[in-house]
Write a structure and sequence with these properties.
This protein has helices spanning 3-19, 40-49, 62-67, 84-89, 91-102, 128-144, 178-190, 201-207, 214-217, 237-251, 279-294, 350-354, 375-386, 408-422, 483-489, and strands spanning 26-29, 54-56, 74-79, 110-118, 152-158, 162-164, 172-173, 195-198, 225-226, 233-234, 259-264, 309-311, 366-369, 436-439. By secondary structure, the protein is of the alpha/beta class. A hairpin with a 7-residue loop joins strand 6 and strand 7 (172-173). Residues 365-450 form the X8 domain.
Length: 493
């Protein structure tokens, strides 16, 4: 076999392996129903810092599209229910919108989905009838621009589109929606677009706490719910709700349509009656959700199936009407501090997964710049820590104790560590988009003292001579690589 042929063979093998390796992604919904949110540029920095690769917005705001340019972040944009009429009425409206509002920013801004209408079955004024014609016109506009394979068109739904969701095998769409739902499903099947659904075990629990256990809603259940028709065991409500949709789709003979979860989450605060709305429960739900989907566990009906999910929401949104919980779904406060820690990689505690021991004998650890981080990532992390991260960076200014050595890595290390210590020294606080790593050797040198947990700037003003940083033993925070990616590299090993 000629080497050229061999090369092509390897490439094809590689592509095939990557093809089957589109593992589930976890994105975040960037809702903006608030009057106190940071600027779009700041938000993009925050998103990058947390390594979030997929973001959903609810409109096509130009400032936001511009802010995401050249970030590589995949963006789902939306057409609101109020705008459906013009899109449904005339093809030219969809063409004009695409030409003026989207194409100028594409592909620098990596738009991958357009949601046409949102939860139309919950909307007033019977907008349901408009949604499929609007989807068709948007699709046609994309096809004329040659983008219909790169940007998928769909529409989001609430679980209320089902008339029955339990047991999952009895899942069925409410027949009153058939007039628009059937054409929509035909559209999705024809264009290989996903069925988008917003899934909220929180509401199911809140509104029916006598029948639903909190553990089942939070993915913490030790007991299982059995579907009597299939005999399948459900350990969490998320899976049960998704399978109810699969069965509803199958009942109408749409077997190829994939499901995408365009919103899910848990509020961290609520009215006195909403006792389950706590930071602990929100952290538990979202942590377990990420762990559950990230390794393509799938559901009992579709084991191993990838499911892309979007966590609702990036920020607490102070202008949302309704119960107290409505304004408290955020992962972040408007000042960009975390409502609770959340590890988007789903790897959980680094110390246990890597088997490495990053705490020193007295339990102290530090966070420094990774030797493998790019200059760009170090710069971003440093700038962020010294601004939004609220780190006091005066020590790395000229003539101050930590200015020398005057290098990006050294300054970033100082700033990363201060942020890390001020934020509880958790593994997440040392992430910096992969640019930070933890170490058990004190990086302090000469007069430059690195903070430790509980110490503070002012206390760390005097000289203590420590081993130089070059001798520090540094344990790389492991990078989670899906097994299938490792396989994909085998041809080169
Ligand atoms: C909504 O509009 C559709 C199509 O015009 C119609 O079939 C359906 O009955 C309407 N539903 C309501 C609740 O008015
Ligand atoms: C089905 O939808 C109709 C119209 O929205 C609603 O009145 C009815 O209660 C729904 N049925 C069920 C079983 O949810
Ligand atoms: C709990 O389930 C029972 C039996 O299915 C039902 O009658 C009752 O309405 C449910 N309670 C709530 C609060 O949903
Ligand atoms: C994926 O995660 C689930 C739930 O945490 C676990 O039960 C399962 O063993 C994991 N699968 C793989 C392949 O790691
Ligand atoms: C890490 O090191 C400390 C101190 O050497 C030791 O007490 C601790 O048990 C170690 N932890 C693990 C998981 O090895
Ligand atoms: C722990 O030990 C390190 C040196 O290894 C020292 O710098 C640090 O101050 C100690 N922390 C505490 C809380 O004693
Ligand atoms: C250390 O300083 C930071 C910022 O100046 C402050 O937010 C934090 O509460 C302080 N920590 C301690 C333990 O004093
Ligand atoms: C700093 O050094 C000065 C003079 O060497 C000393 O008086 C002071 O107590 C030291 N402060 C601390 C916090 O160690």
């Amino acid at each position: 076999m000629g080497s050229g042929f061999r090369l092509i063979f390897d490439c094809i093998l590689l592509l095939m392996l990557f093809g089957i390796c589109q593992s589930s992604t976890v994105g975040v919904c960037y809702g903006r129903n608030a009057d106190d949110l940071p600027t779009a540029d700041k938000v993009v920095q925050l998103i990058q810092l947390h390594n979030i690769k997929n973001v959903r917005i609810y409109d096509s705001n130009i400032q936001i599209l511009k802010a995401f340019a050249n970030t590589g972040i995949e963006l789902m944009i939306g057409i609101s229910n109020l705008d459906l009429l013009p899109f449904a009425q005339f093809q030219s409206n969809a063409d004009t919108w695409l030409k003026n509002s989207i194409l100028p920013y594409y592909p620098a801004t990596k738009i991958t989905y357009i949601t046409v209408g949102a939860e139309v079955t919950e909307a007033p004024n019977n907008v349901s009838a408009l949604v499929v014609p609007a989807m068709q016109n948007v699709f046609t506009a994309l096809r004329k621009a040659g983008l219909h394979r790169k940007i998928k068109v769909s529409s989001t739904h609430s679980l209320g589109i089902l008339s029955r969701s339990f047991p999952p095998s009895a899942g069925a769409f409410n027949s009153s929606h058939a007039f628009f739902l059937r054409p929509m499903l035909e559209f999705l099947a024809e264009h290989q677009s996903p069925f988008m659904v917003d899934i909220y075990p929180y509401y199911a629990y809140r509104d029916s706490s006598s029948n639903v256990s909190l553990d089942y809603a939070l993915f913490e259940s030790s007991s299982e719910v059995i579907d009597p028709n299939t005999g399948w065991l459900y350990t969490n409500m998320f899976d049960a709700q998704i399978d109810a949709i699969y069965f509803a789709l199958m009942a109408l003979n749409f077997r190829t349509i994939k499901i995408m979860v365009t919103e899910t989450g848990w509020p961290s605060k609520g009215s006195p009656k909403e006792t389950a709305a706590t930071p602990d429960n929100a952290q538990t739900y979202n942590t377990n959700l990420i762990r559950h989907v990230i390794n393509d566990t799938g559901t009992p009906a579709k084991p191993g199936e990838e499911i892309d999910v979007y966590i609702f929401s990036l920020f607490n949104e102070n202008r949302k009407p309704g119960l107290e919980s409505e304004r408290n779904w955020g992962l972040f406060f408007p000042d960009q501090t975390s409502v609770y820690n959340l590890d988007f990689t789903g790897r959980g505690s680094l110390d246990t997964t890597t088997g490495s021991n990053i705490t020193s004998s007295n339990g102290t650890s530090w966070c420094i710049a990774s030797p493998t981080a790019s200059e760009d990532d170090l710069r971003k992390g440093l700038d962020w820590a010294c601004s939004s991260g609220n780190v006091d960076c005066s020590a790395i200014q000229p003539s101050q104790p930590c200015f020398e050595p005057d290098s990006l890595a050294s300054h970033a290390s100082y700033a990363f560590n201060s942020y890390y210590q001020q934020n509880g020294a958790t593994d997440i606080a040392c992430r910096f988009g992969g640019a930070g790593i933890r170490t058990n050797k004190n990086p302090s040198y000469d007069n430059c003292l690195y903070m430790t947990l509980g110490s503070n700037k002012t206390a760390a003003s005097n000289a203590t001579v420590s081993p130089s940083r070059s001798s520090s033993s540094v344990e790389k925070v492991s990078v989670w690589i899906p097994g299938c990616l490792l396989m994909a590299f085998l041809p080169f090993l």
